[in-house]
Specification:
The chain contains three helices and ten strands, in the order βααββββαβββββ. The chain is α+β, with helices and mostly antiparallel strands. The strands form two sheets. It has a five-stranded antiparallel beta sheet, with no helix packed on it. The protein has a five-stranded antiparallel beta sheet with strand order 2-4-9-6-7, with no helix packed on it. The two termini are 30 Å apart.
Length: 220
């Protein structure tokens, strides 16, 4: 059973969205900036950074493990059908965006439903799994829907360990006991994440995971 280190998640406040809008406006201004505009732009470079495109981003466009690593395919045993303005596809759980999410699509809380991540044989190895639990983009939806309590992790069908998730909207970092990937048999690695138990929301038929993503070695 692996326990998480909790890290503060993305700031989705109106003020944060306003800061991104101001940064984009100043950065792409057609006329020369006034001294106050230059000062604000320099301030926003520090606050917003130049590698993130949105407050929803979990990983920026700068140098990271994702420069060379990551799964090539993500799928799920089930997914909730799309609504008019939102979908719940498996790929939402690995788009590095906290404003989208996967929701299982079976009756009840989804015990045993799975997300599967396929890594090519030459994909850089990983040492960390990061999880954003529940519908983390919205406090009301996060409370309404189930969050995962425990996730069973298997490699190509062989059980590895269980992730014990906290009931929080923040990022949960799990340091693995060893490196995963580049299998000795030269075959792709498939990591399966299966729901074992949940924190029950106000509407206990839907269980949501915003993101499962990774960090590792072999890139830099």
């Amino acid at each position: 059973m692996l326990q998480p280190i909790i890290e503060t998640g993305p700031d989705l406040s109106p003020e944060r969205y306003e800061a991104f809008a101001d940064f984009d406006s100043l950065l792409n201004a057609q006329a020369p900036l006034s001294p106050s505009g230059v000062a604000l732009l320099e301030q926003l470079y520090v606050e917003v950074g130049e590698t993130l495109e949105s407050p929803c981003d979990l990983v920026g466009g700068g140098c990271s493990w994702y420069c060379g690593g990551g799964p090539d395919t993500v799928w799920a045993s089930s997914s909730l059908g799309a609504s008019k303005d939102r979908n719940y596809a498996a790929t939402n759980a690995h788009d590095l965006n906290v404003c989208t999410a996967w929701c299982e699509g079976v009756e009840g809380p989804g015990m045993g439903e799975q997300l599967v991540y396929r890594f090519a044989p030459d994909s850089p190895r990983l040492h960390t799994i990061l999880v954003v639990n529940g519908a983390a983009h919205d406090t009301v939806l996060w409370q309404r829907n189930n969050r995962v309590r425990t996730l069973a992790v298997a490699e190509n069908g062989i059980p590895l360990f269980t992730l014990s998730l906290a009931d929080t909207m923040d990022i949960q970092r799990f340091r693995l006991p060893g490196l995963l990937g580049k299998r000795e048999d030269g075959q792709p690695m498939e990591l399966t994440f299966a729901i074992l138990s949940v924190y029950q929301g106000n509407r206990p038929d839907d269980t949501v995971i915003t993101e499962i993503y990774f960090d590792g070695v072999d890139v830099h």
